[in-house]
Protein: Metallophosphoesterase family protein
Organism: Polaromonas jejuensis
Amino acid sequence: MKTADKQDPDAPADCPVYSTGVTGEGYVYDGCRNVLSPGWSRRGFIETLGLTGATLAAAPLASMLLPGSALAGSAVEDFRFAILADSHTMGKKNNPMKVRLEAAIRQINAMNPAPDFVMYLGDAITDGTIDEFKYFEDIIAGLKPKTYYLAGEHDWYLDMGEYYMQHMIQRARPYYSFDHKGAHIMALHGSNLNDFWSSRKLSPQERMKVAGDINDPAQGTFALGRAQLDWMEKDLATVPRNAPILIFSHVPLYQYYKPWNFWTQDADQAHAILKPFSNVQVFHAHVHQLVEHQIANMKFCGILSTSWPHPYPESYHTLGLSGQMPRPNPARLFDGLGWHIARVEGSGKVSHEDILWTLKPPES
Ligand SMILES: [Fe+2]
Ligand SMILES: [Fe+2]
């Protein structure tokens, strides 16, 4: 077992390789369970963060990666941002995916006033290859606002996040937070899977195929993991209880439908951490459908895809969910697809507008 070169003093005792960043061997760890990016060098990590050797030596790595929130006493200012997800571009073999993503980019760029930022909630590509990533990057380069990324399973399970971490997330961890105009924003890494591949001796391509197939039970269920839950608790420690908290996760942060892995195994533990806060809005991708839910003080919104819509699972009505996606017509390029604009008002109210292309297809 490889050991972390920086141990987090708050690491749980049962988590022997809990790391705040990169091991001496150049491995990045996600909490105590997953090697994120074998081969990503310590030098690359430091350059990504814009750190020099001197600053690295002067400050504990954990403190640089866990800045905490300075929201106390901050007034909330009105702002808007865009949410985009599940573009699943596949390279030249599937041009409609490119056309749809470009349509969303054109619409976001035309927003007036411009959004403060864009949150991209994962599944940028489909098979995880570098060629696919480069194809996606060429398209997304046309998006003007600053864009924050989190990963979906399709971005991750060919190379265990190596390319996506370096080129899209560009942070030490796949989960992070920041404050913006009085709101606290948390990007979670919801697409963690336990190791289903080693004992089966699966190749990276086979691993990607299992993880990317929502019907394959071999993948198990998604989970945040103990280390990420501990980070959430610590991250929220200084956030005022009434502050708008915007949470982003690829996977629904509740248990929606297990047979398709619309499921976060340890969601109840995240809910317990969020329980003291009165204004929590979660946006998630992965389900490729409009779906709204509320559990106690937490509101959930499923984000439209720009690739294809999934049907509603049979649990949709039994969970008491609301909202309805018009039945998409596969002959129409933009049906059942779209993206979102979210707004935080000075009062703290959080709302979202669903740009559903079924009702108004984009100019093409
Ligand atoms: Fe997806
Ligand atoms: Fe997904």
